[in-house]
Structure of Polysaccharide biosynthesis protein C-terminal domain-containing protein:
Amino acid sequence: LSFQEVALAVLEENRANFPKLARFAMCLGIATSCGIASLAFTPLTVVWFEKVAGLEPDLIALASISLKILVPVPALSVFLSFLRSIYIQVRMTKLITVATVLEVLTLALLFIFLGWILDVAGVIAAFAAFLGGRLTGVLCLLKDIKKCQLF
């Protein structure tokens, strides 16, 4: 969320900053997702959940799966903030509202489907639904990005 505010301020100051801002957003998103991936897909997972968090062995498996599901979320969140800052800059905020409604609706429907219908464990259903919702929000904003005339 703070990236969105900074991106908006930088774009407002000078739209010529767009390429640098886009590169920074890409690097930030990749770095944060890689950071989580380095924990999720290495033996550090067990060290973190067992030694640091103090989870019981049966909960480590659930937490590990959940963490793997969350790997793309930081990158998607940065990208979503970047897209929102563009839409705010060009005064097309209705699309942000639509994307947010679709994101929340997707999250809710996926959680119901995964948790209640498919009987997936709650934390896994919740994180998968969160990922699905976030992806929906990004895709919804990407759909109309060509309408944004920054220059």
